[in-house]
Specification:
Largest sheet: 7 strands, mixed
Shape: elongated
Number of helices: 23
Structural class: alpha/beta
Strand order of the largest sheet: 10-9-8-11-15-13-16
CATH class of the largest domain: Alpha Beta
CATH topology of the largest domain: Spore Coat Polysaccharide Biosynthesis Protein SpsA, Chain A
CATH architecture of the largest domain: Alpha-Beta Complex
Number of strands: 17
Radius of gyration: 29 Å
């Protein structure tokens, strides 16, 4: 193991020592014994060369040789430099970036020392008021470059020197020493922080309203259009009139419609279960192992999550992906100082950045994601929540799946597994529900090419697909379902992954109720947005996808709202028969009675059957059987949340009721041996095996 201690804080005329302790006992070296390294000078007169890939510099053997000489000349041990060179060649980066990513060099001290070697001033903070903010300035959030500053004594340019061209740049600097008055050195993180702060007001406005301005037909900023309000009011008046004039006929029509809706939903889930029984999933993976890995951006929105910060940072750090190609953004509300301070206390790596979202517009997760997307450096983007514990190999699997797919594969959904399923009956039934959704229904929808209501976390996107569809809607409180539908409407497909993300679900009834209310309210927003122009939605989705969308979104909403009515229909029918009037019960009403019974009890049987089928052996052993008796109560609670969502939709449509997370219980429950890469039962295992991944402390079922 190599241990490196680098002191780069001395002035350029002083000795700077680098100690590299290696098994071969590499001796100490004085940097002053070598010629002073010179770095690239970038000025407004000589812009940085255009790169073939905007996210990655062009690398040649000559540039690697320059970097190799530079860092070995600075006294960094040759094994370190050679290892960084191999990684740079594999990742398409530079030796400098690899050394910084491995934390062998501390960026702030390193760039301060480079400034001293060049005879330039170093700034560790840039006043955002000094930034000359142009239309293209935000590009510097995604890649390094010079930043122009306006000061009282004139304009200066903040640059980030690079080691790869220090010889040529040193000569240029000696030939034009007057440039030193117009240049300062700053680290990339200092420049990005200044840009985030300088343009935050305009940026947050654009992030909040761009979808509404550019594609108002996809925005939930307005709950109802004028035409929708008129049509819904007209339908309500007609229904009331029908019940007043023809009460029995109107009740019968309503009964038939609800019965058919319930039956269609059950048939959809039966089809998903049948396909899962007879057709195991196959694992897709790219075979071209020489393909360079892209930069992967992780967007992690947080609010009031100070207690979760230590565990979250450790879990993200455990992901298997080169740190030099990782772009981690912890997104916090600007006023959430507790969470920001907790993150800063974690000694974040150079790949991490804290993005502060200004207080403007609705305080929602999609607004935070849309804001941070402006600074995302990766061509692939993933979203995680504070309580998530993704399998270490999830990014690798997502990348391999994207490589194996075509251009229309725009999104991948990882399965979600509930860690605390044994806490109480609420968490146990929640785990059953998640298992049936993410391991049976969503794979069925993916294989049949239907629109998928995404989960709110562990979504992996191609950046191009995300931007082409407008990104997240800041005004929709279930941005996942909305974006999943929009991706399908734009011609993109959503695939599935095997590597799961483990998370904790609510165990308190009040917390569960608020979360479920937000979900149902967001689905109502999504349905209303899509049905502003039903003909256009039919055309963009296609007939089959349109019907499935109605069953998934409208069907779930209506079934939640009217679930108690099914009990009333059954009770009224049996009471009518018991009263001695059975002889006058028509055949149609008899059929409806039996269909009601089949729908109710079939749903109660299908709910646990689907989840139980997809459970692993560990999950089955920890779910208490008597909790299944609470399924009717669980559905009645969903109905309660549905009516609560309806009232909120009318009174406060954009209210985001946050789900609080208990760090202690989350850490405890996520040590259980839940599935990670193979979150499926034995008879669904893929025939082609992929490497088994393990979340620390969590053993996958096998």
């Amino acid at each position: 193991m190599f241990f490196t201690t680098i002191d780069l804080s001395s002035r350029c005329n002083c000795s700077v020592f680098t100690r590299v302790m290696l098994p071969s006992k590499t001796p100490n070296r004085r940097l002053s014994d070598k010629p002073p390294p010179q770095l690239q000078l970038v000025s407004h007169a000589e812009p940085r060369p255009q790169l073939t890939d905007p996210d990655r510099p062009v690398n040649t053997e000559a540039l690697y040789d320059c970097e190799h000489r530079f860092f070995t000349g600075c006294g960094i041990g040759k094994p370190h430099v050679e290892e960084a060179r191999r990684a740079a060649a594999a990742n398409g980066t530079t030796i400098e970036k690899e050394l910084i990513a491995r934390r062998l060099i501390q960026p702030e001290l390193y760039y301060r020392w480079l400034a001293d070697e060049l005879g330039l001033d170093y700034v560790d903070h840039i006043n955002p008021d000094e930034v000359v903010h142009l239309a293209s300035t935000d590009v510097l959030l995604r890649r390094d470059g010079p930043l122009r500053l306006s000061r009282a004594n004139g304009q200066v340019t903040a640059i980030t020197p690079e080691a790869k061209r220090h010889e040529a740049d040193a000569a240029r600097l000696r030939a034009r020493p007057a440039l030193r008055r117009h240049l300062v050195v700053a680290s990339p993180s200092t420049i990005r922080r200044a840009i985030w702060e300088s343009g935050q007001e305009q940026r947050v406005r654009e992030s909040t309203f761009r979808l509404d301005q550019d594609h108002c037909e996809h925005s939930a900023r307005h709950v109802l259009t004028g035409m929708q309000g008129f049509v819904l009011a007209l339908m309500l008046c007609l229904c009331i009139a029908a019940f007043l004039i023809w009460p029995l006929s109107a009740l019968t029509v309503l009964h038939v419609v609800l019965t058919m809706l319930f039956s269609a939903g059950i048939l959809l889930r039966l089809s998903a279960l049948a396909m899962a029984l007879r057709r195991p999933d196959t694992v897709r993976g790219g075979s071209d192992i020489e393909t360079r890995m892209p930069i992967y951006t992780l967007l992690i929105p947080l609010y009031d999550e100070a207690a979760m910060a230590p565990a979250l940072v450790a879990r993200i750090d455990a992901l298997r992906w080169p740190k030099s190609l990782l772009d981690v953004k912890y997104i916090c509300e600007a006023g959430d100082e507790a969470t920001i301070e907790a993150l800063e206390a974690q000694d974040l790596g150079p790949e991490c950045e804290i993005v502060r979202v200004p207080a403007f517009g609705p305080r929602t997760k999609p607004k935070a994601l849309q804001y941070a997307l402006r600074g995302a450096r990766g061509s692939l983007i993933a979203v995680y929540d504070a309580e998530d514990k993704p399998a270490p190999g999830q990014l690798l699997e997502a990348w391999a799946t994207f490589r194996a797919g075509d251009d229309q594969l725009g999104c991948l959904q990882a399965p979600l597994a509930v860690a605390n399923l044994r806490s109480n009956w609420i968490s146990g039934l929640f785990a059953l529900e998640y298992s049936g959704l993410f391991r049976v229904l969503i794979p069925f929808l993916a294989r049949t090419g239907m629109p998928i209501p995404l989960g709110g976390t562990s979504n992996h996107f191609k950046r191009a697909a995300l931007e082409n569809t407008g990104g997240w809607d800041p005004h929709n409180v279930t941005e996942d379902a909305d974006l999943g539908l929009r991706l399908h409407a734009y011609g993109y497909r959503t695939g599935i992954l095997k590597c799961a993300t483990v998370e904790s679900c609510p165990v308190q009834l009040d917390v569960w109720k608020r979360q479920r209310t937000r979900w149902l309210k967001g689905w109502a927003q999504t349905w209303l947005v899509a049905m502003r122009n039903p003909v256009a939605t039919w055309s963009s989705l296609g007939p089959a996808a349109f019907v499935v969308f109605q069953l998934l979104i409208a069907g779930m909403l209506i079934s939640a709202l009217v679930h108690p009515l099914m009990y009333l229909f059954i009770a009224f029918s049996f009471a009518w028969i018991a009263s001695g009037h059975a002889s006058v019960v028509s055949d149609m009403h008899a059929v409806l009675l039996w269909m009601d019974a089949v729908n109710i009890f079939g749903n109660y049987l299908l709910f646990p059957a689907t989840g139980w089928f997809a459970f692993t052996a560990y999950e089955r052993s920890h779910l208490k059987r008597h909790w299944l008796l609470m399924i009717p109560a669980y559905w009645l609670l969903i109905s309660l949340a549905g009516w609560r969502a309806l009232t909120q939709l009318l009174a406060n449509a954009h209210l985001w009721e946050k789900t609080p997370h208990d760090a202690e219980s989350s850490a405890k429950t996520q040590q259980d041996p839940l599935p990670t890469c193979e979150a499926v039962p034995e008879n669904q295992r893929p025939r082609q095996k992929i490497p088994m991944e393990r979340v620390k402390g969590i053993e996958p079922s096998s």
